[in-house]
Amino acid sequence: MPSETSPPQAPANSHDVPEVLHRRPQPWLKPAGFAAAAIAAVVVVGGLVSRGFASADLKKTAAETAVSTVQVISPAADSADEPLNLPADVEADDVAALHARISGYIKDWKVDIGDHVKVGQVLADIDTPDLDQQLAQAKAALATATAKRNVAQISADRWTRLLQKNAVSQQETDEKTGDLAAKTADVQAAKADVDRLAALESFKRLVSPFNGVVTQRNAHVGALVTANAPNEPALFTVADVHRLRIYVHVPQSYSAQLQPGLEASITVPQFPGRTYEAKLVGTSEAVGAQSGALTAELVIDNPDPSLKPGDYAQASFKLAPANGAVLRLPAAAMMFRQKGLAVGVVDAQNKAHIRYVTLRRDLGTQVEIATGISAGDRVIANPPDSLEEGETVRVATATKAKAKG
């Protein structure tokens, strides 16, 4: 049975081997391989080193980018007098609402609104028939009491002389003397009643209590007037306009700067461009619970008189800063935090700190700071919302906050 395996083949002829296998190895190939390997290693190491440096630079750049760059400013200190403009109410120095002191009828009135009157000038006459009758009756009672006292005087004198002669008893003399005293008292009472009614008669003529101008007239001929009726309209109102009082409601923050003698300029709409000089005479010394303001009283002479009681006016004060200088910052430097208004301040080590402040006045684009910072602080002009206490920042430039002129 024939074998399935092929018989061994005879070795090939040496002439069948490729010529390249008959060549001997070149001596320069081995050093070239080492050189190539060295170059490859250098390239790899160089790449790793370059990548390491790039990574370090990237980390450095990222760290530098994480530090906020801020611009700092110094608060502007302004020691100049600052204007304070407030609305004011003008009132007369004296105002008298004249009511009837007696009951009767208006007989006539002699002045009208706008008339200037002098002290003691008659404004109206009141007809009082009832009072006239009462006065006549009182005078008659006085005459009767006087006559009775005269009779009692004669009797007392006679009994006194008879007592000296022991012609009458002491008891009878004392009775006559006591009757004289009683009749004398009756005369005094009757005279007092006459004087009272005569004094009321003087109120039939309604007169001005001072020099001024009539601002109201409610007296009409024939109208019934009732004595002691304060709820009824006044017959006349007279105001002294030669000297006026001006009342201004000043915010509490300025109350310490209000001192008697402080001058203010007053302006009114009906005379644009004209100013009046008024002087502070005092304050209410109490802050209103609702308004939070102090009432200041000023006086002003009004010889023209161009100012009128009831005028709406503007009062302008020039107040020196309470602490010698006012610190101002741009409104953009303010931060709203949970505890209130704050600013960012940078110290010498470029560390940011949160300073909570209180405002004195809000001027719109600028604010006045009452407490929380000083003039030498470096304040961040536009602090980021993410600013934290102790954060390291990079200061770009330092400028001076511009004070509001």
Structure in words:
With 405 residues, the protein is of the alpha+beta class. It has 4 domains: 69-80 and 324-400, conserved putative lor/sdh protein from methanococcus maripaludis s2 fold (Beta Barrel), CATH 2.40.420.20; 100-124 and 209-234, OB fold (Dihydrolipoamide Acetyltransferase, E2P) (Beta Barrel); 129-203, Helix hairpin bin (Helix Hairpins, Orthogonal Bundle), CATH 1.10.287.470; 240-319, Elongation Factor Tu (Ef-tu), domain 3 (Beta Barrel), CATH 2.40.30.170. It is 26% helix and 36% strand. Strands 1, 16, 17, 18, 21 and 22 form a 6-stranded mixed sheet that branches. The longest helix has 38 residues, at 29-66. The relative contact order is 0.17.
Throw out a few tags for this protein.
Helix Hairpins; single chain; conserved putative lor/sdh protein from methanococcus maripaludis s2 fold; 3 helices; alpha+beta; disordered N terminus; 26% helix; six-stranded antiparallel barrel; OB fold (Dihydrolipoamide Acetyltransferase, E2P); rod-shaped; 405 residues
